[in-house]
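Standup notes, protein team

Yesterday: finished cleaning the Rhodofomes roseus set.
Today: Zn(2)-C6 fungal-type domain-containing protein structure.
Blockers: none.

Input for Zn(2)-C6 fungal-type domain-containing protein:
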Amino acid sequence: MDSGHAPESSRAGAQAFNLTSTTMQNQIHELAKTLPPPRKQNTACDACRARKVKCNQLPGQDKCQHCLSKNYPCTHFVQAATTEKKRTAAASRRPRALSSTTQTPTASSSLGPAASEQPTPGHAPTSPNYPNTTALRPTQTYWPQYHPVTSHTSTRDLLAYLFSPPVPSSTYHSSAGLPGAYADWGGTAPRLAEEAFRFEVALDLVEVYFQIVHTRLPLLNPAQFRARLHFSLHLASQSRSHSPHTPPSASSTSTFLSKGGLTQNDAHKPLHPALVATVIAWGAKFSEHPLLLADRAHNGNQSHIAKTLINRARDLAEDLKVHRIPTADHVVIALLIEPMQNQNMDAADGYHGFWLMSAIRLLLDLQINHKSVMSNIQDPEDRGTMIFAWWMACLADAYRSVYYRRKPMLDDDDYDIDFYTVGPVAPEHLETQGTQPSPREQLEFLGYYRASHALARISRQMSRQLWRPATESDGIPFDILNNFMNLLNDWREEYLHHVGVPNNFDSGWDFVSAVTACECFFLAFRTGGASDATYHIMWIVLFNAVDDFGIREINDLERTGSPGHLHPKAMEIEGQKQKVLDTALASATRIAGLAGILTQNGYLKLDSAVMHVSIIQAGILLARLGRPEVKNCIDGLEQYSYAYEECAEQAAEMRKMYAQAVAGEVDLAHMMSVYSRSGGGMGPASNAMAVDPPMFGGYVG
């Protein structure tokens, strides 16, 4: 009886167990849906791992989103090394082959000595982003990670980071060792592993900065900067062996301290790492140090070292929150980074106005736009720096807005500070003292601040009226066009004879004298400064706006199906359009003349983007109209490519536009009517550079 019920009881128990098991599996399955996905190990690329950011690589793409936005090579050397280390550990735990004569090589032996020479945890390199020189191995497969640079990082360690090898490329082989890691930078670059050589290069690049860039952007005190830098390098030199390139001795450092007006306590305050990095990166653009010459010779006359230093300076500024924390140093750093970058707005790492806008926000946070705050800055040097920084940012914002069709950040009533620097010394006092004024004081003597500000106010008005969706769709109101033409003519009458290019040119000028005279200390689109070049760009901008949008009164009539010439003011409108064409073409030809003079003397390869925007604006108009004067602009941009490599592409595009115009493909819209009537512009074309007779007195070859 019992045996007869046993199978039925077992079946019932089995069914109950199966039901319970199924229920539990369903519950576990539902619970699993709510759990986070398993953590992925070792999937981040080297750049994201170093910066401690999320590595997001979309399916089908070779690079992660971070490397795409930063234009970094997306490498996985750390991941590969970690994976290989696990494989090696697993292989070592497996039983070895019994044969003593033929052993299958393990994963570690296939890699060579490098696999066993990776840095062990807890033994990080002593220098940030740079392996300890004594720990380098000729077969090292990747560069170990680094400790982040902080505001307290010494200048010695900062230089080690800045001059560390570039990210290994696909052509890099670990067997090449240290020379292979530096292969992209030319034959001299491996010497950067020597601390003494890094010091030598850094000091050279700083001097290049003060010789070339500081005359355009006088934001630093050269004596104080040099004193602090030499003092920090002198302290570093005391902890290493002597070499032929040791920094100055203690006595010479004391001399630098006295010239910079610094005490020993002041000198102990380290320079901001991002500021040092930015100054060095600027110097690399123009330096002819053997290291940079070898780099250019290896890379088709382009400097890969300069590009790397610029990227590292910008990344370092981001890491140290330069754009967020309002300090005087951060204002200066932001203003120096902006014109140093790629000037192509379409480039991922190019100019987008970010650092300029950051500098303006920092200045507003510091309330530098208030006269009461500015006057309370006790130190004259600090006050002068902040005043110049304010005007540089304020004027650059206005010119940027009109050049790149953006609304300006600042309005006329956003500030009330006066046009003064640090109380400039009167010219007669300078004659008695026999001293030279600083660049800031020279700007004030010659009235450039006032002229610049007057032109900047016109620029802001043009930006707010022209770059509106309503203007783009409807056209420019005729009264607005007349107003801008009158404002520009009034500015010319009041200021141009004071700040314009002189009538004569001295062939014996050096670089600074020639560029200063030709640009009239115009610190261009970044630094502000009034010159006839900026004034003439305004006419080119106005021409482009009228050609793109047209005049609203004529557009309204044409939308109804009526001919535009039936408008009561049609003749007057066409007359004003003709004046805009003639003035814009004369302006572009004049800028081409300036570019020709600077190019002939080889000065544009040493220019910190001062004439860059002017040459592009003028060259594009001349190319569109098929004018041969565009050759000066093309030659100028090609010379510019020494420091700004994107200029070579811009020159090629300009040459293409000119060829199309000569072939009869003139690219004009609303201005075509006046262009056709004038027979293709202002008078016959000429290979000579025609410029305004009042300024040059004729033609300049």
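Follow-up from PR in the comments: The first strand starts at residue 689 and ends at 690.
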